[in-house]
Prior knowledge:
This protein is α+β, with helices and mostly antiparallel strands. It has helices spanning about 10-15, 20-30, 45-50, 60-70, 80-90, 100-105, 120-130, and strands at about 1-10, 30-40, 70-80, 115.
Amino acid sequence: xxxxxxxxxxxxxxxxxxxxxxxxxxxxxxxxxxxxxxxxxxxxxxxxxxxxxxxxxxxxxxxxxxxxxxxxxxxxxxxxxxxxxxxxxxxxxxxxxxxxxxxxxxxxxxxxxxxxxxxxxxxxxxxxxxxxxxxxxxx
Length: 139
Ligand code: CMP
């Protein structure tokens, strides 16, 4: 089934000029980038986006990191896009990520892990709606 998922290229990656290299991995996997914008997240946006992690010990640092430098927010489209992008990203902790995945190739640590991807179709719709209107997504 054709799905859409939400992706963020995180500050550790934008800082190292890896947006294009990461997009190349995404496209090589057969996912289409149907919306994309470079943005500096506000504290309010980052807190809301990561609300589910509010009680976790790393929440404060996560919000601080995600707002300190630009990110690239994206919508990816393709067959089985949610699960496929999670495969392409690799494990949250790059130490556990498979060869060829984005995180294996580029991530610095569990906190600076280069990309975010939605964990379910339901969350994908919620996350996409936080950053894009329907007319900004061109499939
Ligand atoms: P992400 O997929 O964006 O979702 C939450 C983020 O919290 C995660 O990727 C990591 O970058 C970050 N994070 C920092 N520390 C941890 C941790 N111990 N466990 C899980 N996620 C963490």
